[in-house]
Structures are given as C-alpha cells and as structure tokens.
Amino acid sequence: MSEIVVNQDLITYCGLYCGACSKFIKGKCQGCHTTTRASWCRVRFCNIEHKYNSCADCAEFKDPVDCRKFNNFFSKFYSVVYRSDRAAGIRKIRTDGYRAFAAYMAARNLHAIKRK
C-alpha cells in the first residue's frame, strides 16, 4: 500500500487514522483493528470486548478523557511526543461520523489530529 485512502476501517479504536500512518503505508503495520501486536493496549481490548468500532461508540463517557483506559500514561506520553489529540478525533467521529472522519484525515494526510 503506497497511497492514503479513505477507509473507515482504518480508524483506530482511540481516534487515530492508520490510513495516513507511515508504518501502515509502508506495509510495516496492519492497522489497529487487524494487528496482533497490540495486545497490550487497554483501549483496544476494551473496544473489542464491547464490540465498539472505536471509543466514539462508548456511551459511558461523554468525554473520552474521563475514561481511565483512554486517558492513561501511554496516551499522555503519545500526546506529548507526537502533539496529538486523540480525544479530538473521537469527538470528530461522534459529530461527523466514521466516513467523514476518514475522509477528513486522508485529505489532510493526518494520522492524528494535532494538539493545539
């Protein structure tokens, strides 16, 4: 795979977009939903357990930041290092839907919405 495509199946459980990730594009990663290497991810496990496509489907937390699984040490570290705002991704999915989110991210070549 060498180009960025609009594919809602490439939206991660936590609000990122695999379709614009350099590792995914280079074929070094299968993506969040199909990889077996991310068994350590609590967010991924929670979504699989509840049969959610992403944290956007969770009705328990209005704001994903209130969820301890979503807002954990790793996510905070990732946010700082990559200046990403995964919660903004989840909010955008809830507002606009999965297809529109995938189109938005692909059109802008974004793996993550940037933190302001």
Layout of secondary structure:
Elements: H1 22-25, H2 42-50, H3 73-82, H4 86-96, H5 98-107
Helix pairs in contact: 4-5
Overall description:
The protein is an all-alpha fold. The protein has one domain. Helices cover 38% and strands 0% of the residues. It has helices at 22-25, 42-50, 73-82, 86-96, 98-107. The chain is globular and about 35 Å long. The protein starts with 21 loop residues before the first helix and ends in a 9-residue tail after the last helix.
Topology order in helix (H) and strand (E) letters: HHHHH
Category by helix and strand content: mainly alpha
Query: In terms of per-residue confidence, which ranges show pLDDT below 50 for 5 or more consecutive residues?
Result: none
What number of structural domains do the residues give?
Answer: 1
The shape is globular
List keywords for this structure.
mainly alpha; 38% helix; 0% strand
